[in-house]
Amino acid sequence: ASIIKAVYQCRKIMGAVKVDRTRIVPKVGIIGEFWAMTTEGDGNYGMQRFLEAEGAEVDIQVVAAWLLYMLWQAQWDTKERANLRGTDTKSKFGLEGVDVRKKLATLFAADKVLRSLFQSTAHAMGLTDFHLADMDDLAEVSHAFYDNNLRGGEGHMEVGKLILNIAKSKVNMTLSIKPFGCMPSSSVSDGVQSMITEMYPQGIFLPIETNGDGAVNVYSRVQMQLFKAKQLAKKEVDMALAEAGMTMDEVKAYLVKHPKMNHAFHRSPHVYGCTTADLVHEIGQRKNKLTHLRNQASKLLGLDKGKATNLAIVAKIAAAKAAKKQSHSAVKQDTDVVDENRTPVPKGRTQLNVLA
Predict the structure, then answer these.
(1) Which among 35, 30, 24 is positioned nearest to 222, based on CA atoms?
(2) Residues 32, 189: contact at Cβ < 8 Å?
(3) Distance CA 299, CA 295 (A)
(4) Which of 19, 51, 185, 333 has the fewest other C-beta atoms within 10 Å?
(5) Mean pLDDT: which of 25-29, 138-142, 259-263 is highest?
(6) What phi, psi does 310 have (nearest 5°)?
(7) Which of 104, 40, 29, 25 is nearest to 65 (CA)?
(8) Which CA distances in Å does 168 have to 171, 297, 313, 351?
(9) CA pair distance 146, 248, nearest whole angstrom
């Protein structure tokens, strides 16, 4: 009873917060190593507060997503082990004598129970339009870059989050935080994700490492990328205003007449990375009542799902771009013309030409 009472008290406190969504601020998604991206203090230089002080909206990762990832891993590994030939006895996770269907059913039920508990609590607090990530979607879109069988840190989740953040314009900037020496996250950020940003140059991505003496340097790097994110957010708002055929003063006047859209719990349909741009887009549709009613009906009937970017297509396109970026080495034939300005190759070694 005390928990339920506390939840509804939170709803009352958060509902009383005054918000101004007409103030253009970029949305920054924080990903990375589990503890470094979740803590709020010296462990990540107080990054959440720093970003908000610099004029950004922070999109954090909830702990429930990590629990869902652990359940997804168990489901994935069970399905893979079920296809092994012979007796699976050499591992403590072996399936000898285990009813695979029963185990998968149990994991499936655990996933649904966790999601139900989270959504029930969120709804009681007033967060009626907040949804947990689909683990299968993340695995599908990231598999071309980071094999789902690899383990360590957040595994393929970190890669999938970056791809979806860019492909679906979920945020204006993605910040990856990890402690100094965290090999799983560092290898992903410095290797795989740097290649993704080359294929999607419109995405703003910054990996940072935390250690005892690097706060000033980290803050400086974040500020530089945040400047780009602010420009992108302003561009999105200008696009939304042009599409709606309105000015910002007209948007503010509309909000005065419709105060419910100024409520802390109001959430506009997602179109852009910037919250202000989403609000302008929603107001533009509401002014066109026919379009608004059609969109509302599509949402109720579930017909708007077709508008979402197909994840398989996103992954396929990304994989194709990755293939084009790969370099191929070919052995240089002795008959080729020798470049006199090139450093001579030591004896016993083969000269290679890198073909992009």
Answers:
(1) 30
(2) yes
(3) 6
(4) 333
(5) 25-29
(6) -70, 125
(7) 29
(8) 9, 23, 12, 44
(9) 43
Which of 130-144, 172-186, 211-225, 232-246 shows the highest mean pLDDT? Answer: 232-246
**Residues near 250 by Cβ (< 8 Å), separated by ≥ 6?**
none
Question: What are the structure tokens assigned to 145, written together?
Answer: 């870059």
pLDDT above 50 (res 329): no
Residue 191 near residue 172 (C-beta atoms within 8 A): no
Q: At what angle do helices 248-257 and 275-287 cross, to 10 degrees?
A: 70
Distance of CA 308 to the CA centre of its chain: 16
Give the integer Cα–Cα distance in Å for 72 and 231: 37
- Residue 143 corresponds to which tokens in the numbers above? 């598999």
The pLDDT tens digits for 75-121 are 998 888 887 766 666 666 777 777 888 989 999 999 999 999 999 99
Sign for the pseudo-dihedral over CA of 283, 284, 285, 288 = positive
Number of other CB atoms surrounding residue 16 within 10 Å: 8
Determine the length of the chain. 356
DSSP 274-309: SHHHHHHHHHHHHHSHHHHHHHHHHHHHTGGGGGSP
Strand partners, 31: 176
Q: How confident is the model at residue 311 (pLDDT cuts 50, 70, 90)?
A: low
In angstroms, the Cα distances linking 194 to 145, 188, 219, 319 are 11, 8, 20, 14
Q: Are 68 and 111 in contact (CB under 8 A)?
A: yes
Q: Is 192 exposed, middle or buried (0-12, 13-18, 19+ CB in 10 A)?
A: middle
Q: What is the pLDDT of residue 159?
A: 86
Cα dihedral 7, 12, 16, 21 sign: positive
Query: Strand runs (DSSP E) across 147-248, as ranges?
Result: 173-179, 205-210
Amino acid letter, residue 62: V
- pLDDT of res. 347: 59
Give the integer Cα–Cα distance in Å for 272 and 157: 22
pTM of structure: 0.76
Give pLDDT, residue 40: 85
